User: Fold this.
Amino acid sequence: MDDTAASVTKHYYWPQIPVQRDGSHIMFRVAQKKLTIEEKFRAVFSDVAIGTVLSASEIVAKVVKVYPDVSENSVLPADRCYNITNVGLAYDHSFRIFEHVERAVYRYLGEKYPYCGKVTWKDEPCGSWADGVLEKGENWPYRR
Assistant:
């Protein structure tokens, strides 16, 4: 068998990098891309039932158990909530999967949930959701 492009199987999902030639075969290793924190959240919570209530420490533990390279300090459930926001996060483009229930307690709702309820910033209402559509109020905390 020759080593032309026709002799190499092209059915793969990740970019592959040639590593060595072993006789008539070309060996490959998969080039793994680094997952974002959002992709890690997606993977960890993909099998969690909608409506499951979790403490902040349970959420952190679940992520760190699956991805030990993730610092506990970078798992911030409050930044992933439909009903609370902060100025430091680009809310329009942020990844939301939780509802803040009370201090350090969250309800898992999943992505693109048809959420209905108010959004608060520093415990003050600043917007609301109706069937998954966000309406920003007059006092929405825009990034500066």
About this structure: Residues 37-112 form one domain. DSSP finds two helices and eight strands in the chain. The radius of gyration is 21 Å.
